[in-house]
Amino acid sequence: VAATPLKDEL
Amino acid sequence: MNIFRIGGDLSHLISIFILLHKMRTSKSCIGISFKSQVLYLIVYVTRYLDLLWTFQHSTYNSLMKIIFIGSSAYTIYLMLNDFKPTHDPNIDTFKVEYLIGGSAILALLFPYKWTTSEVLWSFSIWLESVAILPQLFMLQRTGEAETITTHYIFALGAYRALYIPNWLCRYLFENFTDPIAIIAGIIQTILYSDFFYIYYTK
Predict the structure, then answer these.
(1) Which helix (H) or strand (E) holds B5?
(2) Is the dihedral of CA B5, B10, B16, B19 positive or negative?
(3) Sequential DSSP letters for B44-55
(4) Does B61 touch chain A (CB under 8 A)?
């Protein structure tokens, strides 16, 4: 499983 | 960052400012659903836990997260202390247990990853999409709402509504997609749509 991308929204 | 994303975040900030300004000038919290405010605090705390390990990634995001958690906690503090006598729990009767339970089930069933932070993030997204319901329910029960309260709800609704064209832009230009946020964001905007309609026609 690919690492979850950084959440860049609020 | 595109114009819709900035517009959405700005709209969110404005909604907070309107709410606090209204309470401070009228010295009351009449017309404000305490339950909705508590739901928003739960939303911000569960979603922005990542402040602890992503703080340095974006000053803008981190600052906004702190403002959202802080102002939400402050609003609740004011409602519990300074303006407590003006809060009438008898008209704030929406059953929030269903909203919290439903969001928890969706978060546990479809997170991007089964980790604590991802499940809590997903929970916060679903809960945010329905957190306004106690407020709308209260508005419906009391009938006439103060103009300022409707401005608050409008600004808060515009925030997630503006995220939709933002997601479209990001899909087209950055190949970015976030199905949980998009589905929940659309549901959230639909819940506001009746209110938006009345807001525009009055």
Answers:
(1) helix B3-26
(2) negative
(3) HHHHGGGHHHHT
(4) yes
How far is residue B45's CA from residue B197's CA, in Å, rounded to a whole number?
31
pLDDT band per the 50, 70, 90 thresholds, residue A5: low
A6 touches chain B (CB under 8 A): yes
Residue listed under structure tokens 């309260």? B149
Supply the Cα-derived Rg of chain A in whole angstroms: 8
pLDDT of residue B142: 82
A4 in B contact zone (CB under 8 Å): yes
- What pLDDT, on the 0 to 100 scale, is given for residue A3? 47
pLDDT of residue B141: 86
Q: What is the predicted pLDDT for the residue at B147?
A: 85
B57 at interface of A, judged by CB pairs closer than 8 A: yes
How far is A3 from chain B, CA to nearest CA, in Å? Answer: 9
Any long-range contacts for B84-89 (C-beta under 8 Å, 24+ apart)? B86/B27, B86/B28, B86/B29, B86/B30, B87/B29, B87/B30, B87/B32, B87/B34, B88/B30, B89/B34
Picking from B7, B17, B47, B50, the residue whose alpha carbon sits closest to that of residue B152 is B17
**Interface predicted TM-score (ipTM):** 0.83
A4 contacts B9? CB cut-off 8 A: no
Q: Work out the number of other CB atoms within 10 angstroms of the CB of residue B93.
A: 13
Q: Which residue ranges in chain B fall short of pLDDT 50?
A: none
